[in-house]
C-alpha cells in the first residue's frame, strides 16, 4: 500500500541564472539534447489523412469562409477560430492539418467554426464547399476524414474520405452523407494520386459531390448526386479526422509514455525552434545531452539513492545528472507527470485548455541544477466536465487518469437488483409512516411517482413490474429504493455479488488505487425498520448501517485481496459520521458535499466541516466529492470561483487523501477553462495561493483583457456575498437572490472594456466574447424583471438589444452541447429556442 503522506519536495537550484546552467538543451535554435525513451517513439500513422486549403462560397455572396492552414508545425488551429469538440487539429508540413495523437494510438479530432452570418440556400444562391485532401500513401490503417456543413435544422451535409478494413481487405472510398439518407460509398479510383480536391455543391433541390486531382485544371469528376428535401440554412463548418494504427508498442502504459515523449519533443521544438529527436537508448548520439524519460535501468543507475520500487504511483523525479536530465517517477503516472511538471515549472509552458496553450520562445535553453522529488498529498485528483474529462487535459494538469474504476458510481442497484423486490421485499427499505423529513422521499410520494411513471412513460417495458411494486408496497410498507442493510438476506446477496464482481475485475486492476464500491443509490431514501432505526439513533447517522455492512464485506475482501479498498459514500443522509464506529483499514470513505453552500469554502460551515474531520479521523482512506457547477444551467454565472481552491487546503489540513470536483459540461459553461486550470493546480499542490493562480490565468488566457476579466470575477464574488443568508446551491434556475440590475450594468461595462483591450486580436476577442455570454444569459432570463426594476428605481436600463444578443447566438444553436444536467433534452438548442421565442426577430 502506498503511503498517504507526501514526500517532501526537495528543490535545489544552485545556479539561479538560466545562462549559467549545466545542462544545455539548445543554442541558437539548434537542439543540443535528445530525448531517450525506453520505447520507439512512432510518427503519426502512415494512414493519416490531412486537410489543406478549404473554402466555402455562395453564388451571390462570394467567399463565406477561406482557410489556408499555414503556420508553425504542431500549432493548434484554435487561434483561427476553430472550436475543438474532441482532440486537437494541429498544423503539419505544407499547411496540412491532421489530428494530434490522443489516447493510445488514436489520432482523432473534431472542430467547428461558425459562419459570421447563417447562409440560406435558395435556387439562385447555391453553396459550394471545396477542400484539398492529402491521402495516405499506404492505405493499411483505418481512417476517416470529412468536412461537414452545420445547418440550423440540425441536418448533415458531408464530404469526405474513408478507409475500411474488412473481410475482403482494405477499401478506400469517398464518404458522403446527406439528408434524409446516405448515398452509397463510392470507391476512390486507383489513379487518384496522393492529393485530391473535393467539391460539394449544395442547392435548394439537389446536392452533388465531385473530385479531381489537385493542382490540375481537369474537369470535376462526378461522385454522386442526391435530392434535397428542404433548402437548408448553413450555420457553420465541422472538420473531423479519425485514424488508428497498430502501434508496435502494445502495452497501454508504454503508449502513454510514447505520447508524452512526443509531446515533450514538440514543445521543445516550439520553444527553441530546433527539432528534437526522440530515440531509444542505443540510438542516442554521442556529444549531446540526454533527456531520459520513464523508468529504465540507466535512469536507476543515474539516481542510485532513489528507491524506485517504492515511489508513489503519482510521485515525480526531475533531476539533472551531469550533462543529462532525468524525468522519471512512480508508475504508471508519476513519470508522465514529471514530463509535464518540467514543461510547466521549469520551461514556463501553460496549458490553459486544449486550444489555448502558451509556449515561451527562446533559441538558447539551458537548465540550472535540478533535484525535485514530489508526491501530491491528494492521491486521487479528478475534475470532471467538458475540459477536465479530456485525456490530454488530465495529463497536462496532472489529474488522475487511467483509473480502473468508476470515480462516482451508485453500485447498490446492481449488487441488489430491484427485480428481487418481488420475491424478497424484506430485503429493501421499510417506511413506517409519512412524517419523512423530506416529502420527496416519503412513502406516498414514491408511490405517486411510480403511478406517474406508469401513466406517462408508456414506452417503457417494465411497467407491469412497477405496478406489482405498488401492490407489494401497499401490503408491506417496503420500497425498492434502498436496501435494508440489516436484513440478513440483503447483506448476503450484496456481499456475494460484490465478491463475484471483484473476482471478475481484479485481474485487470494493475495499479493503485483499486476500489470495490458498495455505495447507496441516489436520493435520501433510507430504511427505517426497527433494526436500522435503532442503529441510526444510537450512532447519530444512517452512515452507521452502511459502515457496518461495508466493514463486514471489507473483512472478507482483505483475506484474498489485501490491496483492494472497499468504498462507501458519506452522502445526503449518510454524510454525517457515526459516533463510535470506525472504518476498517481497507475501507474508503467518499464524502459527497452536495448539501453544502457553494458560496464559501466548506470549512466555513461547522456541520459539514466537522463531518469531514470526523471521517478523516476514523478512516484510513478518505476522499471528498465536491461540486463546482450549477446543474440547472451551466452557462450562467455561478460565483464559487474560490470555493474549491480553498477546499483543497482544508482537505489537506484534515488529512483527506483525494478529491473529485464534479464540473459543468457544454462549450459555454461559466468560466470553464479557468475553473479547470486553477482547481487542477490546487489539487496537485494545495499550498499555492488561489488568488495568484486566478490572476495568472486571467492574464495568460485573456491577455491585456485579463485585468478587466479579473474585476468582473471580483464583482460577481462581491455580489453573491452581499446577502450573508444567501444559499448558493447546485440547482439554481437563475441568478435571482444575489445578482442585481446594478451588478449587471457594472459587469457589462467591465467586459466591454475587456473587449476593447483585445479588439485587434481575434483569438483573445473570442475568449472575452465567450466570457460575456454568462452575464448575457443571466439578464436575458430575467429581462422582464429587470425592466420593472429599472422603472421602480428610476434608473436607466443599460442592457443591449435582447433580439440582437439572441441573433448572435444563432450559429451556436447546435454546437454548444449540454447547458444543464437535466431534464432531457439538455442540449443548448432547447435553451436557445426558448430565448428565441421570448425575443423573436
Structural overview:
The protein is of the alpha+beta class and 841 residues long. Helices cover 31% and strands 24% of the residues. The N and C termini lie far apart (64 Å).
CATH superfamily of the largest domain: Glycosidases
What is the rounded distance between the termini? 64 Å
Major β-sheet profile: 7 strands, antiparallel
* CATH architecture heading of the largest domain: Alpha-Beta Barrel
Tally of distinct domains: 5
Mean pLDDT: 89
Give the overall shape. Answer: globular
Tell me the strand percentage band. 15-25%
CATH uppermost class of the largest domain: Alpha Beta
State the CATH topology of the largest domain: TIM Barrel
Alpha-beta content class: alpha+beta
Strand order, main sheet: write it out.
Answer: 6-9-18-11-12-13-14
Radius of gyration (CA) equals 29 Å
> How many β strands by DSSP?
34
Unreliable stretches covering 5 or more consecutive residues: 1-21
Helix fraction bin? 25-40%
Number of H- or I-type helical stretches:
21
Amino acid at each position: 500500500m502506498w503511503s498517504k503522506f507526501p514526500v517532501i519536495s526537495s528543490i535545489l537550484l544552485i545556479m539561479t541564472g538560466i545562462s549559467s546552467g549545466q545542462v544545455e538543451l539548445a543554442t541558437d535554435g539548434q537542439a543540443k539534447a535528445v530525448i531517450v525513451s525506453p520505447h520507439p517513439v512512432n510518427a503519426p500513422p502512415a494512414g493519416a489523412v490531412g486537410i489543406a486549403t478549404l473554402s466555402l462560397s455562395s453564388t451571390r455572396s462570394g467567399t463565406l469562409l477561406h482557410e489556408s492552414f499555414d503556420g508553425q508545425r504542431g500549432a493548434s488551429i484554435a487561434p483561427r477560430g476553430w472550436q475543438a469538440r474532441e482532440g486537437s487539429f494541429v498544423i503539419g508540413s505544407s499547411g496540412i492539418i491532421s489530428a494530434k495523437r490522443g489516447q493510445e494510438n488514436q489520432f482523432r479530432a473534431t472542430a467547428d467554426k461558425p459562419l459570421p452570418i447563417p447562409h440560406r440556400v435558395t435556387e439562385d444562391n447555391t453553396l459550394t464547399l471545396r477542400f484539398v485532401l492529402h491521402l495516405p500513401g499506404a492505405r493499411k490503417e483505418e481512417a476517416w476524414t470529412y468536412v461537414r456543413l452545420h445547418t440550423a435544422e440540425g441536418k448533415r451535409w458531408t464530404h469526405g474520405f474513408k478507409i475500411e478494413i474488412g473481410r475482403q481487405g482494405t477499401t478506400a472510398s469517398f464518404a458522403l452523407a446527406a439528408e434524409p439518407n446516405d448515398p452509397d460509398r463510392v470507391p476512390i479510383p486507383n489513379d487518384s494520386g496522393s492529393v485530391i480536391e473535393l467539391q460539394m455543391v449544395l442547392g435548394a433541390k439537389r446536392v452533388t459531390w465531385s473530385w479531381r486531382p489537385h493542382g490540375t485544371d481537369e474537369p470535376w469528376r462526378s461522385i454522386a448526386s442526391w435530392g434535397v428535401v428542404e433548402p437548408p440554412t448553413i450555420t457553420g463548418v465541422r472538420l473531423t479526422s479519425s485514424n488508428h494504427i497498430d502501434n508496435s508498442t502494445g502495452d497501454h502504459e508504454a503508449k502513454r509514455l510514447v505520447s508524452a515523449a512526443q509531446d515533450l519533443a514538440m514543445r521543445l521544438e516550439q520553444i527553441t525552434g530546433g527539432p528534437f529527436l526522440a530515440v531509444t537508448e542505443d540510438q542516442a548520439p554521442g556529444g549531446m545531452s540526454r533527456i531520459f524519460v520513464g523508468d529504465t535501468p540507466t535512469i536507476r543507475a543515474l539516481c542510485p539513492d532513489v528507491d524506485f520500487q517504492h515511489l508513489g504511483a503519482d510521485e515525480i523525479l526531475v533531476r539533472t545528472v551531469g550533462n543529462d536530465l532525468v524525468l522519471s517517477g512512480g508508475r504508471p503516472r508519476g513519470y508522465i507527470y514529471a514530463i509535464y511538471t518540467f514543461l510547466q515549472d521549469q520551461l514556463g509552458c501553460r496549458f490553459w485548455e486544449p486550444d489555448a496553450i502558451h509556449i515561451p520562445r527562446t533559441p538558447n535553453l539551458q537548465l540550472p541544477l535540478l533535484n525535485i522529488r514530489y508526491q501530491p498529498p491528494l492521491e486521487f485528483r479528478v475534475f470532471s466536465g467538458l475540459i477536465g474529462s479530456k485525456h490530454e487535459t488530465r495529463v497536462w494538469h496532472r489529474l488522475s487518469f487511467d483509473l480502473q474504476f468508476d470515480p462516482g458510481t451508485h453500485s447498490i442497484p446492481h449488487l441488489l437488483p430491484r427485480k428481487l423486490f418481488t420475491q424478497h421485499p424484506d430485503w429493501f427499505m421499510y417506511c413506517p409512516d409519512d412524517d419523512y423529513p423530506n416529502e420527496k422521499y416519503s412513502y406516498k410520494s414514491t408511490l405517486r411517482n411510480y403511478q406517474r411513471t406508469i401513466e406517462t412513460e408508456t414506452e417503457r417495458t417494465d411497467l407491469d413490474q412497477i405496478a406489482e411494486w405498488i401492490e407489494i408496497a401497499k401490503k408491506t410498507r417496503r420500497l425498492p429504493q434502498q436496501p435494508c442493510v440489516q436484513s440478513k438476506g440483503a447483506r448476503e446477496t450484496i456481499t456475494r455479488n460484490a465478491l463475484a464482481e471483484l473476482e471478475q475485475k481484479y485481474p485487470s486492476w494493475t495499479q493503485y488505487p483499486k476500489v470495490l464500491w458498495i455505495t447507496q443509490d441516489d436520493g435520501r431514501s433510507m430504511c427505517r425498520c426497527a433494526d436500522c432505526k435503532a442503529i441510526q439513533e444510537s450512532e447519530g447517522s444512517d452512515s452507521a448501517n452502511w459502515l457496518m455492512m461495508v466493514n463486514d464485506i471489507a473483512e472478507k475482501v482483505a483475506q484474498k485481496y489485501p490491496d483492494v479498498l472497499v468504498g462507501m459514500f458519506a452522502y445526503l443522509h449518510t454524510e454525517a459520521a457515526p459516533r463510535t464506529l470506525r472504518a476498517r483499514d481497507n475501507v474508503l470513505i467518499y464524502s459527497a458535499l452536495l448539501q453544502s453552500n457553494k458560496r464559501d469554502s466548506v470549512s466555513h460551515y461547522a456541520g459539514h466541516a466537522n463531518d469531514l474531520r470526523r471521517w478523516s479521523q476514523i478512516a484510513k482512506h478518505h476522499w471528498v466529492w465536491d461540486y463546482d457547477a450549477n446543474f440547472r444551467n451551466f452557462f450562467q454565472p455561478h460565483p464559487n470561483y474560490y470555493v474549491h481552491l480553498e477546499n483543497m487546503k482544508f482537505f489537506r489540513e484534515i488529512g483527506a487523501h483525494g478529491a473529485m470536483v464534479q464540473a459543468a459540461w457544454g462549450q459555454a459553461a461559466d468560466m470553464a477553462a479557468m475553473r479547470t486550470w486553477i482547481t487542477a493546480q490546487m489539487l496537485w499542490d494545495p499550498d499555492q495561493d488561489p488568488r495568484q493562480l486566478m490572476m495568472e490565468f486571467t492574464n495568460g488566457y485573456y491577455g491585456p483583457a485579463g485585468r478587466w476579466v479579473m474585476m468582473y470575477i471580483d464583482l460577481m464574488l462581491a455580489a453573491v456575498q452581499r446577502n450573508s443568508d444567501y444559499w448558493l446551491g447546485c440547482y439554481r434556475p437563475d441568478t435571482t437572490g444575489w445578482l442585481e440590475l446594478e451588478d449587471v450594468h457594472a459587469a457589462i461595462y467591465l467586459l466591454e472594456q475587456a473587449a476593447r483591450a483585445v479588439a485587434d486580436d481575434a483569438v483573445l476577442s473570442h475568449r472575452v466574447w465567450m466570457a460575456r455570454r454568462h452575464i448575457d444569459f443571466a439578464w436575458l432570463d430575467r429581462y422582464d424583471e429587470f425592466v420593472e426594476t429599472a422603472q421602480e428605481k428610476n434608473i436607466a436600463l443599460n442592457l443591449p438589444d435582447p433580439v440582437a444578443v439572441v441573433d448572435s447566438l444563432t450559429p451556436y444553436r447546435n454546437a454548444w452541447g449540454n447547458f444543464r444536467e437535466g431534464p432531457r433534452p439538455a442540449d443548448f438548442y432547447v435553451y436557445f429556442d426558448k430565448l428565441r421565442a421570448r425575443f423573436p426577430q
